[in-house]
Amino acid sequence: RRAGPHARSHAVTPPSAEQTASPVIEWRAVTVDYGRRRAGQPGARALDGVTLAVQPHDFLALVGPNGSGKSTAILAALGLVPASGGQARVFDTVLHAGHPRFRDIVYVPEEPIYHDYLTVSEAIAYYATLNGQRPSADALAATLDRLQLTSARHTRVSACSKGMKQKIGLAQCLLQRPTLLVLDEPMRGLDPLAVREVREVL
User: What is the mean pLDDT of residues 98-113?
Assistant: First the structure.
């Protein structure tokens, strides 16, 4: 707006580096269709022109009924589901499976699949090494204690409850300390006490 004759001058504070930084996650008119196109008709539309940006240090929760496209939005951002239209970027990069930027990301899906023959502590340590890290015994012990998994450290994953398996995924977040943490239905299968514990950890 142009200043009038009686307008007061004032100093303008330049934007900080954080304010001008690229979004951590950005969906640009993203559309995702599942199923084949027949007679010019698209398959099931999971996302329809979603535009959204997540800035550094933001905590974003996608809330909606079952089948509303929450998981699809996550998978599209991570490049694990192709977009039918638009574009999704993470760290200003279009991701794909095996992209090196995944070293900065921990993604825990709604129903993670683990090697059932491993114990809880073995699973947590093993999956951390897949991201190029080797947690120390002290770090592993502290993580087990924080998630109240110490007493179950020698329990095989095959014998773990849904809630315990969720905690194994959360343990990766604590050990790896990623730049970006993506959780799909992190509270599913947890009892009220465990939900409160997870919220405190996050």
Answer: 87
CA angle 134, 139, 140 (to 5 degrees): 80
d(CA 166, CA 113): 10
| 109-156: pLDDT as tens digits | 888 888 999 999 999 988 888 777 788 899 999 999 988 899 999 999
Non-local (6+) Cβ contacts of 149 within 8 A are: 120, 143, 164, 167, 168, 171
DSSP, collapsed to helix, strand or coil, labels residue 104 as helix
Site of tokens 């977040």 = 173
- How far apart CA 111 and CA 89 sit, in angstroms, is 24
Whose CA is closest to 57, among 101, 17, 107, 9? 17
